[in-house]
Fold this sequence. Notes:
Blueprint: H1 2-8, H2 15-26, H3 34-50, H4 52-67, H5 72-76, H6 86-98, H7 108-115, H8 121-127, H9 130-140, H10 152-173, H11 176-181, H12 184-187, H13 191-211, H14 221-244, H15 248-271, H16 279-295, H17 300-307, H18 309-323, H19 331-361, H20 365-385, H21 394-405, H22 414-457, H23 464-473, H24 481-508, H25 511-516, H26 519-525, H27 527-564, H28 573-586, H29 593-625, H30 634-646, H31 667-671
Helix pairs in contact: 1-2, 2-4, 3-4, 3-9, 6-17, 8-16, 10-13, 10-15, 13-14, 14-15, 15-16, 18-21, 18-24, 18-29, 19-20, 19-22, 19-28, 20-27, 21-22, 21-29, 22-28, 22-30, 23-28, 24-27, 24-29, 26-27, 28-29
Transmembrane segments: 341-358, 370-391, 432-454, 474-498, 541-566, 595-622
Membrane topology: Multi-pass membrane protein
Subcellular location: Membrane
Amino acid sequence: MEQTLIRMMDAKSDPLTSLKELIDALRPGKVIDGVTAINNARALCYLLEQHVEYRAALRKQLFTLLGTTRQVQLYTDTGILSNESVFTAIVRRVGSKLLPPPVKPEYLKDLFGVLFPNTNDYVWLNDIPTEVWFEVGAAAHLEELSLAEIPTHIRLQQLEAIQVLSCRLSAIGLEPEIVLHHPDVERFESPFVRLNAEVLSYIERYREDLTARRPPDEDHSHILVLLQQCEQIIAKVWKMAAKNGASVSLTYHLLRLKQHIDRLKVLFDLVDSMTPEKHGPALLGLFLELVKAENRKYSVRDVLQENTELLALQITEHASHTGEHYISETRSEWLQMFRSAAGAGVIVGFMALIKILFAKAHLPPLLEAFAFSMNYALGFMLIHILHFTVATKQPAMTAARIAAALPTIENKKNEAYTELIELMIKVIRTQFIAIVGNVLLAIPVALGIAWLWWYEFGQHVVDTTKADKMLHELMPIAGMGIFYAAIAGCCLFLAGLISGYYDNKSLYNQIPQRIAAMPLLNKIFGEYRSRRLGQYIEHNLGALAGNFYFGIMLGSMATLGFLLGLPLDIRHITFSAANLAYAVSAYDFTLAWPIVAWGAMGVAVIGITNLFVSFTLALWVAMRSRKRRMSELKPLWGKFWRRAMSRPIDLFIAPKPAIEAVKTPPLEEKQG
């Protein structure tokens, strides 16, 4: 490190090369070695404090680099999303990662990538405490410089960056999608418009002071008030989006607005000569932010995570609201869930028969996939339309409800966890009775269909060869039942996301209102029926879409595996139960009871896998969308098991309603 500082004293040394060597000397061997990074920074402090010529050379190299490069793009582009769609941003990042653009030495933005070339440099830089960074700044002794030695070019570049950011901020704030969610912007003078005018006036006066070589004394407090008003509008738009739905493009606009406002605040702190105490924290924060943005500039994951945050929250929120319908509070609701699941079990018995008949037809692979998919999709949609319930659809919906009810980290009171534990108990017993309803009706309905088929046609629905294959498919290991059930669980999870996505899309695009106002529908069915159709779509579009796509996934998975040469298939508990019944009937009910027992056990394992996979994935997404961690659930499990063991029956059967004694009114009321 000292040798690098000595070389900096050479008048012929290149500023970029010298500063790069110094950063290389500060960088620890391992990125996670924060102790070494701190020790290196303190070693630099010591050398600068002990040697006046070292710090003078460092200051000269640094200001030479800053005084001879264009910095506007560094302030306005690095760490700020550009004016492009999310898809274009992803394509551009992938293309730049595969074929990096050339470095332009006149732009500080490009030189930043040269100084910090490692994709994890920001990690060790952030490990250095703030007070150590301030020690480095103090050791440089900038007060030893005269005003003439600091290039005016640096301040002019910062002012130009402020002007660019202000213009962009005004344009984004008046985007139609923003105005749609905040109509007041059209009725009153927008702070985004006034902001740009005030910023231009501020910059003009500031440049005059710099030209006249006098200390700038412009006050920008009124600009900060306008920025605060812009932030209030952003908050209102977020709130409206939470109510009326969101889109990726809206999230993109809001995120860009926030980034521009934050960057403007930092730059105003840097150029404000009235509050020099803000310069250090603002400069350090901006430096660390720029390094991280430079290191992550080709990250596709960051773009997706930032721009789908609001949309993911909206999707899981809609799933959470849907999940409330899958939670029974009382004994009557619990019994109603059984009846609803039993109705679905009846339909599944017929769906299993139709799939067997399609398989017997030996259609071409793609036609067979289409036939299977339509059987599943239309069957699941019929189940929903008739207000029946498929048990395995519950976990993807109820997981979001549980995540929403999780207490905050600060709220560690027992009462908060008690409510959540009671919710989980309700979810489990509702899930249990739904599975019972599905399976207990799917099996006898399949047996009844098999008997009627044999009675009418004199042969079984499946022969013994097909029955053996169906029994083998129920085996958890030998028949890959667990693996295929996990695939079905993933499909269930995706169906839950699709359902939430379409509910959000319905609200955001005002699909119910459009349907109700559609001239052709009003002409054919009348205004009343069109409005009723719109209301039905409003409450059921997500569920119908989720069921349809779930059916497509189940029906095409095996064909997809066949085409790709991969072991892909699905196992679903209710259909597996129906298939077990058809297989038993193929042997005229003469199968040995151990074989039937193994098949029943396979059905149970498939069901548990379906539920566990879909619930875990849905809970993980719901937690991530709320910026919570799965580790926050740890305190819950001990309390849950103690509650479950205190009354195990509550996990399976809803308690009877408490009968309150009728109170006799007081004598005064009788007489009155």
